[in-house]
Amino acid sequence: MVDRLRNMEVYGICSICGKAGKLYTCRFCGKNVCNEHFDFATGLCINCKGKII
Are strands 20-25 and 32-33 parallel, antiparallel or unpaired? Predict the structure, then answer.
């Protein structure tokens, strides 16, 4: 079940820039952000990555 949830594509408005498109969910804060504001290596949005690292 978890594997299926990871592969679900989510579309909407980025919580950071407001751009519409495919979104990724930050593992720390849960915000949905676009690929420009998501760090794929950590699974974090750029805001959380800056706070943690």
Answer: antiparallel
All domains in the chain, ordered by first residue? 2-52 (3.30.40)
Cα Rg for the chain, rounded, in angstroms? 11
Q: Please answer whether residues 19 and 12 qualify as being in contact, where contact means their C-beta atoms are separated by less than 8 angstroms.
A: no
Distance of alpha carbon 50 from alpha carbon 38, whole angstroms = 11
pTM equals: 0.80
Tell me the pLDDT tens digit for each residue of 31-49: 999 999 999 999 999 999 9
- At position 47, the amino acid (one-letter code) is N
Three-class SS state of 28 = coil
